[in-house]
Sequence to fold (171 residues):
Amino acid sequence: MGKLGFLFNPEGNMPKGEIKSRDVEFDFLGLLTESIGGKDNKFNGAIKLDEDSIYVEKRSRLNGKVKDAFNIDYDEISEENIQRIADNKIQFNLNDKNIILKTLDDDMLNNFETRLLNKLTTGSFEVEEVPQAKQIVRDIPEEIRKYHELFKDGIITEEEFENKKKELLNN
Fold:
């Protein structure tokens, strides 16, 4: 995540005089291309995946000042509306516009995409870890022979060999 200070008004609009400054951990920082009616506009983009919506800032490419900010509700977008169009680009297809995100930071883009897709499919940003399956022994007789050799060489006891043999045969 990238950290960036930005101008923020808790009410969501950005009138002069009510703008406050705060630091935010953004999930995406990079080039944001917004396509509306076939016209492309490019901005520096800063995106935060909040619990209830996706917060998007469009910033000037010249001075970095916030030009516009808006939210995308999660119910406005689905997994099918998000496409990886290149190694360093993701496209959102929304009802009224398309947004393309581009960055040179592969880790940030991969993390952003993973968290967003997980939020859309499971309702949570957290990726569930899949428990590791037990290693499958493909050749049980060969494994038993190995343990028998260890027993014959005195490395393991007869009891340890018999226990391991039972374990292998029962699985």
